């Protein structure tokens, strides 16, 4: 992405969906700071089918104490858009994974 490109925010969560930006210790980030995106709410999956290890790693207790949240692996921050709304801007990944046509690719595997 060229440096002069404007980043388009992902928007605001839908009603009933909770979005948390948490630091490496899973504490909420300060306003305006980037953090890992965690998503929760009544529509959250029960986990990965047939993969208890991944379910345990990615589906965690909510910091609010209500239900669970999903660790997306994406980084983001809350920003105010030109209309004054608070929106989520996705800024990249915690790891180096890429998503190409719906398939996750780890560049280090391609480099090897």
From TrEMBL:
This protein's record includes keyword Phosphoprotein: yes
The identity of this protein, by name, is AMP-dependent synthetase/ligase domain-containing protein
Q: Does the keyword Metal-binding apply?
A: no
All copies of domain AMP-dependent synthetase/ligase, residue ranges: 4-49
Keywords per UniProt? Phosphopantetheine, Phosphoprotein
Q: Which Gene3D superfamilies match?
A: Luciferase, Domain 3 (2.30.38.10)
Pfam families linked to this entry: AMP-binding
Q: Which InterPro entries match?
A: AMP-dep_synth/lig_dom
């Amino acid at each position: 992405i060229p440096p002069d490109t404007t980043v388009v925010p992902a928007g605001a969560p839908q009603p009933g969906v909770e979005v948390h930006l948490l630091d490496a210790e899973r504490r909420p980030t300060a306003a305006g700071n980037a953090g890992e995106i965690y998503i929760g709410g009544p529509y959250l999956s029960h986990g990965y089918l047939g993969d208890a290890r991944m379910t345990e790693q990615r589906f965690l207790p909510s910091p609010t104490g209500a239900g669970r949240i999903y660790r997306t692996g994406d980084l983001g921050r809350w920003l105010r858009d030109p209309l004054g709304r608070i929106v989520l801007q996705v800024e990249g990944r915690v790891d180096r994974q890429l998503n190409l046509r719906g398939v996750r690719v780890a560049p280090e595997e391609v480099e090897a």
